[in-house]
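$ ./design --mode recover --in tokens.txt
reading tokens...
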């Protein structure tokens, strides 16, 4: 039974893992490690970014004006989806076999409408 529980993880474990992935993405962007940040993007988000910018992911990501952040403020995880609010940015993540990946970044809320995101998958 322990093995099954470890694979699924409880709500707190999912939130912690999503927060860690979101923090790692933001830290990579802030330090200019765009190769690492691209590794943390979901495949669809990476593909959309590359197609939109007509550049490889690291160069395409470097050209985005993602907001600076200073730490996780709130995490909501529901099944395989998570929202990570940082000071200055909101990320959306999905759980893949390799762990949590960023599916949208640079997201700002809009009243009565979906978030507006600089980087997003299909």
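writing sequence...
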């Amino acid at each position: 039974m322990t093995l099954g529980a470890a694979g699924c993880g409880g709500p707190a474990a999912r939130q912690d893992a999503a927060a860690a992935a979101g923090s790692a993405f933001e830290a990579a962007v802030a330090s200019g490690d765009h190769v690492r940040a691209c590794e943390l993007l979901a495949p669809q988000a990476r593909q959309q970014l590359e197609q939109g910018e007509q550049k490889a992911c690291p160069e395409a990501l470097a050209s985005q004006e993602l907001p600076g952040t200073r730490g996780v403020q709130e995490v909501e995880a529901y099944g395989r989806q998570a929202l990570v609010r940082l000071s200055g940015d909101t990320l959306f993540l999905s759980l893949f076999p390799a762990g949590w990946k960023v599916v949208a970044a640079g997201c700002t809320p809009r009243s009565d409408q979906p978030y507006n995101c600089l980087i997003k998958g299909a």
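exit 0
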